[in-house]
Amino acid sequence: MTANNLVGQVAALSGARAGWAESRVSVLALALGALMLVGCDQGQVDTANKVGQGFIVSQTKLERPSADAAMVRITTKPGGAQIYINGHRRGDTPEQAGQTFAIKLAEGSYHIQVVKAIDANNEWRGERKDVFIADFTSPTVHIDMSRELTPAGVVAQRKAEEERKAENQRRWAQQGYVDNQDGTITDTKTNLTWMRCSLGQTWTGTTCSGDASIHRWQAARDLAKESRFADKSDWRLPTVDELHSLVYCSSGQQRQRRLDASGSNARQGNTSLDGSCEGNYSRPTIFTPAFPNMPSAFYWSASPVAFNSSDAWGVHFYNGFGNYVYRSSSTHVRLVRGGQ
């Protein structure tokens, strides 16, 4: 029996004899319940803007509420959300905080879902499953919604990820790096193979976790000899020239690196020819997709300083300059194999 038929019966009964009063009240209650249940049903999904696609469950039967049925109040954060009960559209929560959407529901268990559009790729979603509603009650159901991708958003995200991967591959090729899929990369320009992580860090398969450790120069050399990684045992400290080959200036501006007759950085006027980056560049000064989670710090090389046996060369990846420090200093280490 439809809601319109029930309303018609109520109208017919209104002119009947007074002895039918009890029946008239009963039919009126049924009619009002049917109106609340049927009158605002808008289908499973908002077909106008496709909100809730892939989220709203398939419709299941809703029983007509009796006169004793619960008056359920529904609130959401944020407000203005479309309400679906067992897959049936039932209205919208108020935009204003503190206000509720009220509906009579027969005693039983319900799946209440709410959804609100943000843009073509995103929407607010929330749900409460197995909400039991008892007669003679007036419960309030509050649902906090979370931001989720729409089907179009999932497609857009996949496209963006594919574009990002293609761009990374282009940049890797531009740098001459090949990912060996074992925590190492090979530089095709120098034919050197590098550990992607600094000593002290752990390769997770996608990034370097933990903190890079620091060591004195001789300790770094000893650790290199003892290192076993990616089924290789011929790891070593790089020379300063090899280490400096990793410097990447995102600005595209880099000073020349050249030594003078004494073995120190040469100068050109007031400028030190130390190979550092110039302009507006990112730090650390290395190609971070190949060497992730690296500190912008000084790294040891195996190259001693010719004019001072207390010092050794290294490269500072804060700005990419080659310099020397006391061998007793504790700094970071990245190992290499091949070459020489």
Task: Explain what you see.
The structure is a single chain. By secondary structure, the protein is of the alpha+beta class. It has two domains: 70-149, Carboxypeptidase-like, regulatory domain (Immunoglobulin-like); 178-337, no CATH class. The chain is built from five helices and 19 strands. A five-stranded antiparallel sheet has the order 3-2-5-6-8. A four-stranded antiparallel sheet has the order 9-10-11-19. β2 (82-85) and β3 (88-92) form a beta hairpin. The N and C termini lie far apart (90 Å). Residues 1-44 have low confidence and may be disordered.
Write the layout of secondary structure elements.
Layout: H1 3-13, H2 21-38, E1 70-77, E2 82-85, E3 88-92, E4 101-105, E5 108-117, E6 122-133, E7 140-144, E8 146-149, H3 151-175, E9 177-179, E10 184-187, E11 192-195, E12 202-203, E13 208-209, H4 217-226, H5 240-244, E14 267-268, E15 271-272, E16 298-305, E17 308-316, E18 321-326, E19 336-337
Largest sheet: 5 strands, antiparallel
The fraction of residues assigned to DSSP E strands is 25-35%
Straight-line distance between termini = 90 Å
Q: Which strand order spans the largest sheet, edge to edge or round the barrel?
A: 3-2-5-6-8
**Mean pLDDT figure:** 88
Helix content: 10-25%
Q: Please count the helical segments.
A: 5
Shape: elongated
How many strands appear in the DSSP assignment?
Answer: 19
- List the domain count as a whole number: 2
Structural class: alpha+beta
